[in-house]
Amino acid sequence: MVSVDQVLSTLSLVIDPDLKKSIVSMGMIKDIEINGSELKFTLELTTPACPFNDEIEQDVRKAIASIKEVSKLDLKVTAKVMEGRSLSVDQMLPTVKNIIGVASGKGGVGKTTVSVNLALALAKTGAKVGLLDADIYGPSVPLMLGMNKAAMEVDNNKLQPVDSHGIKVVSFGFFAEQAHQAAIYRGPIISGILKQFLVDTNWSDLDYLIVDLPPGTGDIPLTLAQTIPITGIVVVTTPQDVASNIAVKAFGMFQKLNIPIMGVIENMSYFTCPKCTEKHYIFGKDGAKRMSEKHELQFLGGIPLNPGIMEGSDSGRPVLVSDPNSTMSQSFMAVAKNVAARCSVLASQLSDEMKDAAAN
Ligand SMILES: Nc1ncnc2c1ncn2[C@@H]1O[C@H](COP(=O)(O)OP(=O)(O)OP(=O)(O)O)[C@@H](O)[C@H]1O
Questions:
Q1: From 58's CA, which of 3, 216, 295, 359 has a CA 20 to 30 Å away?
Q2: What is the C-alpha to C-alpha distance for residues 211 and 112, in angstroms, rounded to an integer?
Q3: Is 125 annotated as a binding residue?
Q4: Atom 1 of ligand 1 has which residue's CA nearest to it?
Q5: Percent above pLDDT 70 for the chain
Q6: Do 148 and 189 fall within a single domain?
Q7: Which residues span the domain enclosing 68?
Q8: Half-sphere exposure in the Cβ direction for 233 (13 Å, CA)
Q9: Which atom, in ligand 1's list, is nearest to the CA of 314?
Q10: Domain for residue 124, yes or no?
């Protein structure tokens, strides 16, 4: 009969392609049961959005198939999102495993469109997701999610996020009166509002909190970076070199603050002609990819240009809701999986650092 040790040593040869670590050392193998030649266990992945889910499962099945004493495998695959921020030291938001800021160098590159669809895509994989619209000067999340009439309630001195398509949303746009005056608010007031949205909201348990930041490097990104430990920042850009160069400045600030740059998302990468189905690189090809390589950042994927996305955004039906099987939605799903994978890598590094600190 096969032993637990034999199972674990066979499975320890399976390496997570992202984390570059053995799935056994990452604690992904749980609840092993052996009954004669029948083997049962759970493979617990680091995120339901892992782009390598299938590959890891296949590798596990192959490894077990090499054990001649096992005639039948009952494999359950689950996922538990890892903590990409040190919850043990963060008393302010201890139920949110990962906070991801979405930044851009300049306005109008599609940062909010990406934030909304990234949040929806992560939720679609089964993760618990929140979306904080931190663009206090021009909150457009309510419009994009068709929540213009939504209002946030306060319960036990905590703001209650509003549910939309399975994600929990907080936006300054829900305070219609104040939102009109936002343009006249100055640094300290704006920082105070953001802190309240982060900390005085009843987010409950979240795997990922996406924070849609205003463009540039003003008070809000700075407040986010300085208020609370965050997992990292993703930078949205368009293929034009000019936009990419501005993006470089944006992430330079985060790097100075020791905030990891998780990678770069290119929006409006190309347009597919509906008649000839050929891809047209209207703003140039691979601008963001080249920028990522130059600055040793991860390229998290490209989103095509599609006039339908504008109509969907204006009518409150994001593409992931209105047309979940479209190429557009698939590209958002692919980007979301890469973002989740980066979170797992950062979480694994954090866990190593904490272990090292505890050992010293
Ligand atoms: N891939 C795309 N294809 C077509 N239109 C897009 C795409 N991405 C965004 N848009 C449109 O571009 C406009 C700007 O997008 P969005 O508001 O997301 O940008 P932003 O960077 O958040 O802007 P701001 O700096 O004003 O906050 C919107 O009308 C949106 O619908």
A1: 3
A2: 10
A3: no
A4: 305
A5: 95
A6: yes
A7: 4-79
A8: 30
A9: 31
A10: yes
CATH number of the structural domain spanning residue 53: 3.30.300.130
Q: Is 329 in the pocket of ligand 1 (CB under 6 A)?
A: no
CA distance 67 to 252: 51
Q: What is the domain count for the chain? A: 2
Ligand 1 neighbour 118 (Cβ under 6 A): no
Q: Is 118 in the same domain as 19?
A: no
Residue nearest to atom 15 of ligand 1 (CA): 110
What is the pairing mode between strands 232-237 and 15-16? unpaired
248's tokens: 């470089």
State the Cα–Cα distance between residues 353 and 347, nearest whole angstrom: 10
111 shares its domain with 210: yes
Residues 36 and 107 in one domain: no
What is the per-residue pLDDT across 210-250, written as a single tens digit (0 to 9) for each? 999 988 888 888 888 888 889 999 999 998 876 677 878 87
Q: Which atom of ligand 1 is nearest to the CA of 140?
A: 17
| Interface predicted TM-score (ipTM) of this complex, two decimals | 0.97
Could you tell me the pTM of the whole model?
0.91
Q: Which of 79, 111, 143 is the last residue of a domain?
A: 79
Does residue 91 form part of some domain?
no
Q: Where are the alpha helices (DSSP H) in the chain?
A: 4-11, 53-65, 111-124, 141-144, 176-181, 187-199, 219-227, 241-256, 287-294, 307-314, 319-322, 327-359
